[in-house]
Amino acid sequence: MMAGAKKEIPLREGLFTSGIPNDGSPQLVGTRCRSCGEVTFPKRKICPNCHKQDPEEISLSRYGKIYSVTVVTQRPPIYYKGPVPYAMGFVELPEGVRIQTLFTGCDPDSLGIGMDVELVVEKLCEDQEGHEIITYKFRPVDV
Length: 143
Known about the structure:
The protein is 0% helix and 43% strand. The chain has no helices and 10 strands. It is globular, with a radius of gyration of 16 Å. It starts with 7 loop residues before the first strand and ends with a strand.
């Protein structure tokens, strides 16, 4: 890579995969407890349900339903550098886990509870060197 070349940097390592070499679709990485079956995101070393230290890493479903949503119209003071207004909330996946997320790909006011959504990985902001900080988000599924 050339000096000064821009790169994509995950917001936090281990939250998601790019999908390569599979079908190219990103996936969230969680854990399932081998003792009680509890599914968690992000990955954990200890099950929050039975407290066993025997999790297995799993890929979570790319599709879910909006469990809750809110539209934020004022920029938070420190960490968020993306566009305003923006939508955030929780998505419930088929595995039973609820994921806190930003929503993308639509007018924030068009989102509603129960809406089908899919996982995407997108730019959140740029760091001081101009590299893209990327994160997972969910967008409405085209019906």
